[in-house]
Specification:
Length: 308
């Protein structure tokens, strides 16, 4: 684990760091049934090679950062499958190893590719609840309870060699505060924090983003802040507001331009065909965004379009 910002080497060469896109969308396209509370983490148990292959496809599309399939990989979640904490930590470590294997293959194919990173995904407590509360933040736990929940995964990801942490899809101020404090137990760790939002100026739980950013500013281990798993058309306004609050690099990886129909359980594209991640890239860069990728329903093709 680097003592400095692991993103620096890429940003010295390129105008922004290109992240990967959706893991679950690609796994479903390869025949995985993810109708499960563990979501992509289920595949860590059942068919991990597929996860490595998805990471490799994203590197081949131009991604510089692979985000591990550990978003819902926690001892609490795996306990429902009869696994103890030691077994759970091994699966979380496997999520890092699979991304590292993909990186090794890609670098063998492209020796001049430069720095490629593995970001350990740390999803919110709401993801474990598997009830959509990562978009509401309406759950309450003490700071110590949040830290106890996240600590085993954070430790497993760092011990397995993740270059940094992606504390992502975070809806709750109290949980974000606890996670930031937890990082101080691992001084070499670096992390970005990305949020889900109620609107362009408020976290999903209603906390003003100015308060969130001011709190995170006390933690030098935080190397970027931003948003993910947000509707594409809502990104720029929120990023513009964040840019007014912090000098940190901003991160954005929204959902595709499609919208989910909860009744038919299908996705549909609304609006103009040009409403893509690549279409929004210039305005994102103009407001200080330095990490860009995709979340739900995005694919290697979307990442390749961002790579140009």
């Amino acid at each position: 684990m680097s003592q400095s910002n692991p993103l620096t080497a890429i940003l010295e060469r390129e105008p922004f760091v290109l992240l990967d896109g959706a893991m679950a969308t690609e796994l479903e396209g390869r025949g995985c049934n993810l109708a499960d509370s563990l979501w992509s983490a289920k595949v860590l148990m059942e068919n991990p090679t597929l996860i490595r292959d998805v990471h490799l496809d994203y590197f081949r599309a131009g991604a510089r950062v692979a985000i591990t399939a550990s978003y819902q990989a926690t001892p609490a979640g795996f306990a429902a499958r009869g696994l103890d904490e030691a077994q759970s930590r091994l699966l979380i470590a496997r999520s890092v190893a699979l991304a590292q294997e993909a990186r090794t293959v890609y670098l063998a194919e492209n020796p001049q590719a430069g720095a490629l990173l593995v970001a350990g995904s740390v999803g919110p407590y709401g993801a474990y609840l598997a009830d959509g509360s990562e978009y509401r933040g309406d759950y309450q736990r003490s700071a110590e309870a949040f830290k106890a929940f996240h600590r085993p995964r954070v430790e497993a990801l760092l011990e397995a060699g993740a270059d940094l942490l992606a504390c992502e899809t975070q809806p709750s101020f109290s949980e974000i505060s606890a996670l930031a404090e937890l990082l101080t137990e691992y001084p070499a760790a670096r992390a970005w924090f990305s949020f889900t939002l109620r609107d362009a100026q408020h976290l999903s739980d209603g906390t003003p983003l100015c308060d969130v950013v001011a709190m995170l500013a006390r933690y030098p281990q935080v190397v970027a802040v931003g948003i993910n798993c947000i509707a594409l058309e809502k990104t720029t306004e929120a990023l513009r507001h964040l840019h007014s609050l912090t000098a940190l690099p901003l991160v954005v990886y929204p959902n595709s331009g499609e919208h989910y129909d909860a009744v038919s359980k299908t996705w549909h594209h609304h609006g103009e065909a040009c409403d893509t991640l690549a279409h929004h890239l210039p305005e994102w860069l103009a407001v200080g965004t330095k990490l860009v990728g995709g979340c739900c329903r995005t694919t290697p093709a979307d990442i390749a379009a961002l790579a140009g």
